[in-house]
Every structure is written in C-alpha cells, then in structure tokens.
Amino acid sequence: KLAGCTLFITGASRGIGKAIALKAAKDGANIVIAAKTAEPHPTLPGTIYTAAEEIEAAGGKALPCVVNVREEQQIINAVEKAVKTFGGIDILVNNASAISLTGTLETATKKVNLMMDVNVRGTYLTSKACLPHLRKSKNPHILNLSPPMNMNPMWFKNHCAYTISKYGMSMCVLGMAEEFRGEVAVNALWPKTAIHTAAMDMLGGAGIEKQCRKTDILADAAYCILTKPKTFTGNFIIDEVLLREEGVKDFDVYAIAPGHPLMPDFFLDEKKLSGSQQEGADGAKVKTESAAAQPSGPVADTFRVIQGAVTEEHVRSTQGVFQFELSGDGGGTWYIDLKSKGGSAGFGKPPVAADVVMSMSSADFVKMFTGKLKPTLAFMSGKLRIKGNMALAIKLEKMLSQLNSKL
C-alpha cells in the first residue's frame, strides 16, 4: 500500500522511528531518515547509515539526512533534499523526542530547553517545512508520536516540563488537523504499554524489558493509520485499541516476555487511582505529627527486615542514602543508609543527607518492598515520587529484587 510513497521520519535511526520505517520499506516505500546520529553513539545503537542499510535490505529506498530538529535550517535542507531525490513527500512521522522525568526544581534549564525544542518546536517546524509538499500528495499524512491530552494532575506533578512538551506535540495535532482538514490527515499515536527501546533501558534499568512490548506494535498501528484515507484525521490513537478494531487478537507476539505483566505507559489512566489527589496533603500531615513513639505495623516490620538484611556488600555496591516520606498508616519519615559503614535502616531522618527522597503511601511502600509493586511501575503511574539521583534509585530497585525472598 505504501509502495512508491515517501516518508519523512524524524529520529528514525533507532527505536520506534526505525520500526515504522522498516514496516513501510517492506512495501517498497522511500524513507528519509531525518536523525542526528551520523557517528556511532557510545551507548545507543545505530546511525542514520546503518538504518539506511536495513531499510534497503527490507525492500525500500533510503535517504539518510543529518537532522537535529532543534536546527530549522537542517530540517529545511533535508526536506529539499527529499523532494529533489524522491519528487515529493507523502507522509511525515514526528517521532524525535527528548525526555527527563524530573520535578520542576530538579530539571536543569538546558533540559527544559531540550524537551521544548525537540518535542514541541521540532514537531511544529518539521510539520511546517513538510506541509507545502504534503498538500501536493494524493493521500498525505502527519503522524505525531504523542499522547491523548489527559488533564489528570498526576501526569504533571512528577515531570511537569516533559508533560508540557509531549502535550505540545498533541496540540499540534489538534490545531493542524483542523487547519488542514480535507487536505492533510494529522493524527497522534501512543502506546498502551511501555515499549522496549534504548531510552526505556536507561529509564528503567536491567530487567525492564520484560514489562515492555516490542516496537513492532507501534509500527503495525502506524501502518494502519498511514494507509487510511486523509479523511481519517484529528484522532488520538492508542496502538492496542486500533489493532483490536482491525481484527488483531494475539498480542503475545508483541511482548518481549509473553505472559509477563506489562507496564502501562504514561498519560493513560487504567483506572482512577484512589486517593492520589489526597496523598500530598496526607503526607504533609504525617510530617508534622509527633515522632516520639516508634511506629509499629507493616512499614515498621518491613524496615526491621531491611535492617537485618543489609550487608557490607549492599553498602559497597550502592553507596546511597534513601529517605522515604510515607503517607497513611505507619507513615512518616524513614530511611535506608547504604553509604555509611555497616548500613542501617529505620524511623526518622537518615544520619547523613539523603541522595534520594521517595514519597508514596505506606501501603504502596509495603507492596513495593515485598515484590507486589514494581518500583518502575509505581513511578510511572504516579504512586511513587522520586527526587534526587535517579541512577541510585535504580540501584535500590536492583537490591530490592535480591531482598524480596526475605521480605
């Protein structure tokens, strides 16, 4: 269906962008790989040239272009080169994205600028550069990899800048779909679950892939959208929902570890999280209560087990101090010191300054430390708020997996 069509895909050297490119290449499409990785990256796989080789091996034609979407002239140059090489542009996929899951005070200005420049401004400028050519196509599409706009405050409170930047991409869909209705289809696509990419590995650490699906699910969903008529526009599509409507029944084929529980993606409310709006207020109350009496109950029991399980090896391999602000029964301020000699855990503030502060309900804390709630899932669903060193938080998750048998 996409034979002879020209797709301009940002961030197509790896991950989701490359998966969409390879799916289209099987039809014999022309792919413009608009990405900034020309030289091999020290930690991330793939360049625009290795992606080009894979695309041509799959049956497509590839045009690798060095494009940092923060630089308008690089976008314009790549668009002109694409039109000169392939005669036009039929489809634009705005996939390039930057992420920093940090709170307002922890987000450096350069990170704010990066997310706004890549996610919002980059999407807007690439669309602007491609639109004059898209309008000449028989069945033109713009597809943004961005979420439905969910105004639940939980999606803003932990990473306000990132959320604003992704919703900016979605607002481009909202506005441009209406502005170019009848001329160019403009839609958004978002995964129902976490997708296994290099970015997810960095965010979630070792073992996270078992909770993810392959990029293939987004490639298949994108293909469904891009082969629909241009009257299909202004939609915020969830990959699994669309594919079920298209008749797909077996979703195990998309799982990295079939049968393993999957992590829901950002911005999607699986169900209303009871008490999520009140937790902040409860937490504040807990902090002002008298700490004279040593608490008892599941939280205190959990810390007693942790205290008994901590070894010098844990201290040597972690080198971090963790403070917990827990709301609800048995809550208050607790700590795990995996930096001082011997290590320790207990009630109150840590003996030295905390590297990481984690805020959550005491019930979710107990679930997390007994293996019933994955820390990454707790964080992504808004149940766990983390301030400080994210790399240390991931180290703690690894230690938890070792301690689960004792807890």
List keywords for this structure.
single chain; about 400 residues; alpha/beta; Rossmann fold; Nonspecific Lipid-transfer Protein, Chain A; seven-stranded parallel beta sheet; five-stranded mixed beta sheet; 15 helices; 12 strands
Beginning-to-end CA distance, first to last residue? 55 Å
Number of extended strands:
12
CATH superfamily of the largest domain: NAD(P)-binding Rossmann-like Domain
CATH class of the largest domain: Alpha Beta
Q: Beta fraction of the residues?
A: 15-25%
Largest sheet: 7 strands, parallel
Shape: elongated
Reported CATH architecture of the largest domain: 3-Layer(aba) Sandwich
Query: What count of helical segments does DSSP give?
Result: 15
Structural class: alpha/beta
Tell me the count of domains: 2
| Average pLDDT reading | 87
Low-confidence stretches: 271-294
Roughly how many Å is the radius of gyration?
A: 24 Å
| CATH structural fold name of the largest domain | Rossmann fold
**SSE string, helices as H and strands as E:** EHEHEHEHEHHEHHEHHHHEEEEHHEH
